[in-house]
């Protein structure tokens, strides 16, 4: 057991946590996670917890892969840092770029490295505007995103995000960003035919382009499945219609694959699951399975040809773009995902089992909808199923349920009253059973506490 006395008080005294209610943290103290193995994490009080969220949707390969630690150690001894600016490169950055070209859809032969998903989306914004300037259309600047999207916490990332609370705190979005509705069938129009609803939600993009003027719109950005917005699975009709609109209107299509990249939906990229064929893809998280902070923008030929052919210098980059240690770890992670067929094996076996068992939870009195794709899923908690009544105020029951889950040894995330899982791709069938058993017990206990 590590020495833990005083950690919680020091944490409250000195550490300003991201996305944390400070009053609640100070009242309860933080949970200090000390180590992890496979799909489990341990806290400083010795509790073993099944990590249903793979950290923050990122530890796709599972915890404790020694090969990744060895890659970091070896690279730190060889060359702990050098930059990729000014015509320099390093072997890990070269190797990772080539691996990404091998593992991504054929239009992606180039990658621009960043340190995180937020930086990737900042890079997207800079890159699409620069692209249109190079094409002689400098007025094409506006990027259309979606309500409730999450694209990061930097100023551009938070502006592209569609979260009203983030906008309100930071006086965002910055100019040149517009939002349209999300394809949230259960939340918006559950009585409507699902594919009709999907078409209606997609055509909001067309209406917005008309409103803003096609000549002013640079790009549309979206997550294949909205993650932090509540695992919003789009109707089947949604993405083909978006694809049609982007192709007919002269705008770039950007997929934010920060969550859906590297196997989450059962294909290497979420775009492949939905047949999206984007011009750019933002990546991070699963690129290194979270073992090192690294992200990137995968640049399709349409944009790369212009940047390389006509661009000159792109005045953009980060000290840690293509960091050699992070790149070495990411390359090792990708080789393991590829050679052990982790994504394909999860898609063939454990994810159909997980999705089938997950949908059994829809019978629980607290659950209005159970949905998911591949290795991501959500439960919508409701006060009453029929007639449908949501909990008020929104979020209280989700938080209660999340806390009970942790008491029962399971991490689930609460987005308002939606309970989410996004476990490591190496979850076993036995661990699916454990997850469902703990989730069911937690829902039962939440229902009892609500009735008291
Ligand atoms: N894009 C999506 C879809 C995300 O889910 C996230 C983080 O959760 C980000 C971007 C931001 O990534 P980061 O936290 O690495 O900056």
From TrEMBL:
<dbReference type="GO" id="GO:0009102">
    <property type="term" value="P:biotin biosynthetic process"/>
</dbReference>
<comment type="similarity">
    <text>Belongs to the class-III pyridoxal-phosphate-dependent aminotransferase family.</text>
</comment>
<dbReference type="InterPro" id="IPR015421">
    <property type="entry name" value="PyrdxlP-dep_Trfase_major"/>
</dbReference>
<protein>
    <submittedName>
        <fullName>Aspartate aminotransferase family protein</fullName>
    </submittedName>
</protein>
<dbReference type="GO" id="GO:0004015">
    <property type="term" value="F:adenosylmethionine-8-amino-7-oxononanoate transaminase activity"/>
</dbReference>
<keyword id="KW-0663">Pyridoxal phosphate</keyword>
<dbReference type="InterPro" id="IPR015422">
    <property type="entry name" value="PyrdxlP-dep_Trfase_small"/>
</dbReference>
<keyword id="KW-0032">Aminotransferase</keyword>
<dbReference type="InterPro" id="IPR049704">
    <property type="entry name" value="Aminotrans_3_PPA_site"/>
</dbReference>
<dbReference type="InterPro" id="IPR005814">
    <property type="entry name" value="Aminotrans_3"/>
</dbReference>
<keyword id="KW-0808">Transferase</keyword>
<dbReference type="Pfam" id="PF00202">
    <property type="entry name" value="Aminotran_3"/>
</dbReference>
<dbReference type="InterPro" id="IPR015424">
    <property type="entry name" value="PyrdxlP-dep_Trfase"/>
</dbReference>
<dbReference type="GO" id="GO:0009448">
    <property type="term" value="P:gamma-aminobutyric acid metabolic process"/>
</dbReference>
<dbReference type="GO" id="GO:0030170">
    <property type="term" value="F:pyridoxal phosphate binding"/>
</dbReference>
């Amino acid at each position: 057991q590590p020495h833990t006395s005083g950690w919680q008080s020091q944490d409250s005294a000195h550490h300003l946590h991201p996305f944390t209610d400070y009053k609640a943290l100070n009242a309860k103290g933080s949970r200090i996670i000390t180590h992890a193995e496979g799909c489990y994490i341990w806290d400083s009080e010795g509790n073993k917890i099944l990590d249903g969220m793979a950290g923050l949707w990122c530890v796709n390969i599972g915890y404790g892969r020694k090969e990744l630690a060895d890659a970091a150690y070896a690279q730190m001894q060889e060359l702990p840092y050098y930059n990729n600016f000014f015509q320099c490169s390093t072997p890990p950055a070269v190797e990772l770029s080539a691996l990404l070209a091998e593992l991504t859809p054929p239009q992606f032969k180039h990658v621009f490295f960043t340190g995180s998903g937020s930086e990737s989306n900042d890079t997207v914004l800079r890159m699409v505007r620069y692209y249109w300037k190079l094409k002689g259309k400098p007025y094409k600047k506006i990027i259309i995103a979606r309500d409730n999207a999450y694209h990061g916490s930097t100023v551009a990332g938070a502006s592209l995000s569609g979260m009203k609370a983030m906008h309100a705190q930071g006086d965002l979005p910055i100019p040149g960003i517009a939002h349209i509705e999300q394809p949230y069938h259960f939340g918006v129009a559950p009585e409507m035919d699902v594919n009709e609803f999907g078409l209606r939600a997609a055509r909001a993009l067309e209406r917005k382009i008309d409103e803003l003027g096609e000549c002013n719109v640079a790009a549309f950005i979206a997550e294949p499945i909205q993650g932090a917005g509540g695992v919003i699975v789009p109707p089947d009709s949604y993405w083909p219609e978006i694809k049609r609109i982007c192709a007919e209107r002269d705008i770039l299509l950007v997929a934010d694959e920060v969550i859906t990249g590297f196997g989450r939906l059962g294909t290497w990229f979420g775009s492949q699951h939905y047949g999206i064929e984007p011009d750019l893809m933002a990546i991070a998280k699963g690129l290194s399975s979270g073992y090192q902070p690294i992200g990137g923008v995968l640049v399709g030929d349409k944009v790369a040809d212009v940047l390389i052919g006509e661009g000159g210098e792109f005045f953009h980059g980060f000290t840690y773009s293509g960091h050699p240690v992070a790149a070495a770890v990411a390359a090792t992670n990708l080789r393991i995902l590829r050679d052990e067929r982790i994504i394909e094996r999860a898609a063939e076996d454990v994810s159909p089992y997980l999705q089938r068992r997950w949908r059994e939870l829809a019978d629980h009195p607290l659950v209005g909808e159970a949905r998911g794709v591949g290795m991501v899923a959500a439960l919508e908690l409701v006060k009453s199923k029929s007639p449908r009544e949501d909990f008020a105020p929104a979020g209280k029951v989700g938080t209660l349920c999340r806390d009970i889950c942790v008491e029962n040894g399971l991490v689930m995330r609460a987005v308002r009253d939606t309970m989410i899982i996004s476990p490591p791709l190496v979850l076993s069938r036995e661990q699916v059973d454990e997850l469902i058993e703990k989730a069911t017990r937690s829902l039962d206990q939440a229902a009892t506490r609500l009735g008291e």
